[in-house]
Design brief:
This protein is of the alpha/beta class and 207 residues long. It is built from 7 helices and 7 strands. It has a single domain, classed as Peroxisomal Thiolase, Chain A, domain 1. Strands 3-2-1-7-6-4-5 form a 7-stranded mixed β-sheet, with helices on both faces.
C-alpha cells in the first residue's frame, strides 16, 4: 500500500496545434500549420532565450515547451525530480532524417546534429541540463498511452525514495502532429494522481 497520496501539481497537454496548461489555453494556431512551425511559434510565445532549442528535434522541442510551462506553474523542480516518459514511435523522426542522409545515393552524409537525437531519451538529457536535474529517468515505448503502467511505476519510485517528484507522461510526436500529456507528480495539493484522473486529462478536450 502507498504511504502517501500523490497529486498532479501541474500538467500540460499539446494536441495538434494547441497547448493547454492546467486545462487553460496557452497557445494555438490553425491545424494546417506544419508542426515544426507551430513548435517554433510556441517557443517564441514563451518569451525565453534558450538558443539550444533551435537545434533540437521535434520530440525534444515539444517536451521542452511542456516542461518549461509546468515549471512556471509548479517549479522550480527539485534536483531529484525523476523523468518517466513514453511514446509509440520512439525517435522515428530523427531516425528517418538520419537514414535519408546516410543512404542518399548522390551525397551520402551522416549529420551529427541529426544523429544525436536518434534516441528518445536524449530529450531527457536536454531537460536535465535546462533544469539542472540529477535524477532517475526512463523512456518507455508503448503502443498507446498507458497510465495503468505509469501510475504504479511513478508511485513506486516516489515511495522508494528514488525521487522527490516526477515528470511523467506521453510524448508522441510525428511529422504531422503532436499528442502530448506531461504532468508533474508530487505530494503537494492538486488532483489525485491515479489512472482515472489521467485518462480524464488525456481525453478532456474530446469530451
Amino acid at each position: 500500500m502507498e504511504k502517501h497520496q500523490y497529486h498532479i501539481q501541474s500538467y500540460c497537454r499539446i494536441r495538434g496545434c494547441a497547448i493547454q496548461i492546467n486545462g487553460k489555453p496557452f497557445f494555438n494556431l490553425v491545424p494546417s500549420v506544419p508542426i515544426g512551425d507551430f513548435l517554433k511559434s510556441a517557443y517564441r510565445h514563451l518569451n525565453i532565450d534558450y538558443p539550444k532549442f533551435h537545434k533540437m528535434d521535434g520530440l525534444c522541442k515539444a517536451i521542452f515547451i511542456a516542461v518549461e510551462l509546468m515549471a512556471l506553474e509548479s517549479g522550480p523542480y527539485q534536483r531529484d525530480t525523476a523523468l518517466i516518459f513514453s511514446n509509440r514511435s520512439s525517435s522515428h523522426l530523427s531516425d528517418s532524417r538520419h537514414a535519408t542522409g546516410i543512404f542518399d545515393t548522390i551525397n551520402p552524409v551522416a549529420s551529427p546534429s541529426t544523429f544525436v537525437y536518434t534516441l528518445p531519451n536524449i530529450a531527457m538529457g536536454e531537460i536535465s541540463i535546462r533544469h539542472q536535474l540529477q535524477s532517475e529517468n526512463v523512456f518507455f515505448i508503448f503502443d498507446s498511452y498507458l497510465p495503468e503502467f505509469l501510475v504504479p511505476f511513478t508511485a513506486s519510485m516516489l515511495e522508494d525514495g528514488k525521487a522527490g517528484s516526477v515528470l511523467c507522461g506521453w510524448t508522441e510526436i510525428t511529422a504531422e502532429t503532436c499528442d502530448l500529456l506531461l504532468y508533474h507528480v508530487g505530494i503537494s495539493t492538486g488532483p489525485l494522481h491515479n489512472v482515472e484522473q489521467l485518462k480524464r486529462l488525456y481525453n478532456e478536450e474530446d469530451e
